[in-house]
Amino acid sequence: MTLSDMSSGVRVLDKASLLLSALEAEPASLATLVAKTGLPRPTAHRLAVAMERLDLLTRDTAGRFGLGPRLADMSAGARQNSLLLAAEPVLERLHELTGVSAQLHQRRGVRRVCVLSAGSQDDSRQTGPIGAASPMRYGSIAQVLLAWEDPDQLYEGLREARFNGATLSGVRRQGWAESVGDDGPGSASIAAPVRGLDNRVVGAVALSGPVAQLSRNPGRRYAGHVIDAAILIGERLSR
């Protein structure tokens, strides 16, 4: 690709975009960048060094340029925004159908975080506001976020968990998890996995609230609703 193949109307942006495109597949030396982009060597060098200062590019020990860490952060942010946009109307509909507080949770290291919520309950301790974090040691949400992890992550996650490998095997088999009392006395929840474009679990849809509302077997009544919502969010992500 050369400058003649693309134009935003701002030449410096077009040149920077050329450099990024040339580095999509693998790192490259300055000479390779010049050959791939058709840019003059001084121009390619000046732009590459400037983009390195901004963490848009990086350099390895051989002096080759590669895509920088800031691009990964931007990409993660874009995926996060896409997930929230895809999930918001689905959670609202799930809450309307069930009358129960519906949330989207994601794993952040050793904790699970509520990133989106629809509906509310009188006892906020049982639902948690957006941004609320809880340990990955217990509850249906933690089970769903851990059940499909790779073996090493699975082993580490089970070391301090209140559930075991057999529990997670059951979660994988049925496609959802439920818990009663794990998030506090009288609480109940049911969760199902949301899958991204690569089929990896990127979050968990959950219904949570008092046992009086969800019963002591929330899966019996709500599993179909939660699974459908999780699938729909995944489908919206792929559009």
Automatic annotation (TrEMBL):
Keyword Transcription regulation: yes
SUPFAM superfamilies assigned: GAF domain-like (SSF55781), Winged helix' DNA-binding domain (SSF46785)
Alphabetized UniProt keyword annotations: DNA-binding, Transcription, Transcription regulation
Organism, scientific name: Streptomyces fildesensis
Residues annotated as domain HTH iclR-type: 10-69
UniProt entry tagged with the keyword Cell wall biogenesis/degradation: no
Domain (IclR-ED): residue spans on this chain: 70-239
Top-level taxonomy: Bacteria, Bacillati, Actinomycetota, Actinomycetes, Kitasatosporales
Gene3D superfamilies in UniProt: 3.30.450.40, Winged helix-like DNA-binding domain superfamily/Winged helix DNA-binding domain
Protein name per the record: IclR family transcriptional regulator
